[in-house]
User: What shape does this take?
Amino acid sequence: MTQLDLILETYVHATSESVAGAVSEPGFARELWPLWSVVVSEDRGPLGVRWLLDDARYSGSTEVWVEAVASDACVLHTFVRVDRRGGSVSAWRRRRVRDRMVKTLWRFKDDVEGRVAHSGG
Assistant: This one.
């Protein structure tokens, strides 16, 4: 069973094409998962990106699937499936990763939508 298994969904009021383009930028993954070294395993174009994580401490996969729900809106389905090598992922660490992802995705949403940033929390 995967130790860290997260699913987040974020509604974005912007075209799926513009969102997918921003998701495929290298800085997006670095901001979303700053402690992990991820490598693109599949650039799915307008549908998003899949990354592999394989470093000294963690292994697994991450994905952001961009689903168009209207001509000017989409949903980001963000998946994380990660195991820690030689140990388990604590509940505290799972919460911390999830909270960081939520804040990063909200900031991304605000940027893409051209809005003033959320205060977080």
Notes: The first strand starts at residue 4 and ends at 12. Residues 40 and 51 are 4 Å apart (CA to CA). The chain is about 30% helix and 40% strand.
